[in-house]
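Q: I have 696 residues here and want to know how they pack in 3D. Can you give me a structure?
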Amino acid sequence: MNVTIASNPIKATFDAYGRLVDFINTNCAKGSILAEAPKTPFRMTIELGENKEVTIRQDAVKPKVCKQSNAIEFTYETLEFFDGQHQLTIPIRLSLKATIVNDTLVFDAAIANGSQARILDFTYPVIGKIADLGTGLPPALLMPSQAGFRIQNAPAWLAGMREHRENSPNTATHVYPGEASMQWQALTDDQNSLFLTAHDSDFYPNEITQRGEANRNFITLEFTRIICLEPGRNFTSPEAVLHFYKGDWHKGAKNYANWMNQHRPPHVKPDWIRKMAGYFLVINKQQYGYEMWPYHTLPKLYELAKAHGCDTLGLFGWYHSGHDNQYPDLEVSPTLGGTQTLKDNIKKVQDEGGHVTLYYQGHLIDETSDYFRNKDGKRICAKNIWGNPYVEFYNKSHQSDFLKNFSRKMFAIACPSTPEWRDLMLRRQDWLAKLGPDGCLYDQIGGIIPYVCFDKSHGHKQDNPALSNTGGRRQLLNSLQAHAKHINPNFAFMSEHINDLYSGYLDAVHAIGVAPSAPGDFADAHDNPHSVRRINYPALFRYCFPNDVITTRNPNPHISTRLSNYALAFGFRPEMEIRYQADCDDVLNDKYQQTREYALKIASLRQQFANELLLGTFVDNDEIASCDPHIIATSFVNQNTMAVVLWNDTPNQYPLDNFKAKEGWTVDAIATSDGPLDKLPAAIEPWQLIVARYTR
């Protein structure tokens, strides 16, 4: 028998097994958005003896039901499972609860592990199966992976995946905090939106999942918590909030950001970081010992950086062992020029108005390093469920087929919960600062996958392997940020990866995956909602955390015209990378002169409107009343001034006669890369970018 809870405008119906079978918001649609019930209300994986993969689903077991006016609770006093041979009962008590709060449905759960098993992961809630959001249009998936992406017609995208018999066919997953940069997923058809958001202040690793079916256009949304719950312990699942409302994605994203900002520590960024024009990344010496940029060439590198519109040199591989080699045992390179030459030439760049950051590695331990072999490395590295170190491999060969195929360098992973690793990172930060840079970049610790460490000697948060990385990394980042400002309030602390949990500790982020997708994809998404395509959608993160300073990730010795426009439109700082000898040759010979000159023009435009584009707050289209939907239109507000960026990323001309800022704004100045305009033109030309400043 089904049970319904309701509070206008929300009505939620559950079957006797605890599955959500109908979900209605009468403000959005007359009927339920759930086309079919999911197979199970939850899943759980336990480690029982030698069997590390016992899966529990209660497909046929009815729990006890307790209903209140706006809440319902399903309780299993014990759980049943099949171990491959027998149907067994295990003393794990599980309570699943759903409560209507305003116009949302809030899910929580409680587990009492009275068994001898370790509960590895727990999937709840399971929201599906969804075909559309009540309008008949196929929903797009919004996924905050790094800056964010959008999948048009997500059910068809999942249905069309290659079938296989491995884990999770027709499924997309992203782990938070890792490649998933925020704890939410959403469906939208731009008329209605459905958000599934996690409010987890302990920050357990969370696999954010979209599940489909072969040749059937449905989508199911899930959260799977990695909890590693030991025998005799209890777990209260953090809230998951289901919000179905009329309107586009901005409302749901803002609600999440308001919650998350309670858990992001405030700090003052150095002024030079807030005004940073661009990041010119250089590898002085590569992994296999190839030297490209001795220390005396830093002034020349800064000259090249300025020619591309950048004002900051990011030095990687500046140490004697070369890039991605011998971490954490890094030393100044005598063959690149020695300590005094490095200091002197950093100072020369600074005297010219530039800035320099020095790279350090905060995550990897080279297994051939002295630190790993003879010091703390083996003991403090993160251990997997088998008791072995996690490893990653990196190969920076650029010419040799032998090195490419047979020389992948192996690194263990430092467990950030260990005080020895934190102490080492702080000592090395002091060492970096004494060389005279404006800041440091500790690679990878800004959001790489949250390895679960099973070494009990490391002192993990709550003695829980699942919190070893998120708990330890926040402590590490907080220590490094505080120590950087103790060294000098203007000494910047940077890292890699976009992630809301960690970027609050950083002054700037060296991004991953920040680049435009196919030309015209935003316009095509509007014209063809049934087409299946992936679109890089960076406004998702930028709108939630608009004051994070984030570079584009550009592994090229030039900045393409579209990347220059993309960075300006979405508030990123442009980046380019000089990593190999071919890159050195190209940049010295000005091979990409045309794009370099355009990048310099866009940099000039950014400086012209720096008060808004650099020092203002990215608000996406919040302050835009109307605009042709084929045009990318974003806005940046700084108190009583605003810059609007209009970018036509298509080969077609579009009219601007219907463009309007919201009431109260008056246009003050208009410019393109070619100079100022007296007024907004009647149309925006193919590939053109226009910036307009408004006052109120």
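Q: Anything worth noting?
A: The first helix runs from residue 154 to 159. The mean pLDDT is 96.
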